[in-house]
Design brief:
Structural class: alpha/beta
Strand content: 5-15%
Number of helices: 7
Number of strands: 5
Oligomer: single chain
Order of helices and strands: HEHEHEHEHEHH
């Protein structure tokens, strides 16, 4: 998960994806490269078995990927920090797919432009996930969401067909080390 801006929901999405894959019988390693170590904190709360979590940093990701492949993990999900470009670049270079997490706000959209520029510069594939979007009312997307999706289309990176809505369940489940599933 990548985004140059904090608060976009990278850790929440990374943790839920890791748990979802684990619940489907996949061997999952979650690399917590964010110095806040929030993903690690969440997975330590689990009463049941879960994805393996490793606290790491950008320069150590290559060795971690090699170890994950050698040890037969199906997925390595990397939770990146919002900070320095160099930390994010380590993850982008090693990833088969970088998921750009964006909320439908002006500041997130501006940060997404910078994040996608890195993807293009490095020639790496990405997918944009619109996160924490307000619910549609009367069957139509709120103007905030429509405008965000229109702006994101200009970045020439595929946009996930599903928008993640602002739901407390995503936050509450993590407080118990669980997934929304």
């Amino acid at each position: 998960m990548i985004a140059r801006k904090g608060g976009s929901g990278k850790t929440t999405l990374a943790t839920h994806l890791a748990l979802a894959a684990h619940l489907r019988g996949r061997r999952v390693m979650l690399a917590d490269a964010d110095p806040q170590r929030s993903a690690s904190d969440v997975l330590k709360l689990r009463q049941a078995e879960g994805p393996q979590v490793v606290e790491t940093a950008g320069p150590k990701l290559f060795a971690l990927k090699v170890a994950a492949l050698r040890d037969g993990f199906d997925y390595l999900i990397i939770d990146t920090p919002a900070g320095p470009e160099t930390e994010v670049c380590h993850a982008i270079v090693l990833s088969e797919l970088s998921v750009v997490v964006v909320r439908p706000t002006y500041l997130d959209l501006v940060a997404a432009v910078r994040t996608v520029e890195i993807l293009h510069r490095l020639g790496r594939p990405g997918l944009i996930v619109l996160n924490q979007a307000p619910f549609s009312r009367t069957g139509a997307e709120p103007p905030l969401v429509r405008k965000a999706l229109d702006a994101l289309k200009l970045l020439h990176v595929p946009i996930a067909p599903v928008t993640i809505r602002a739901r407390m369940a995503y936050q509450e489940a993590l407080s118990a080390g669980m997934s929304v599933e």
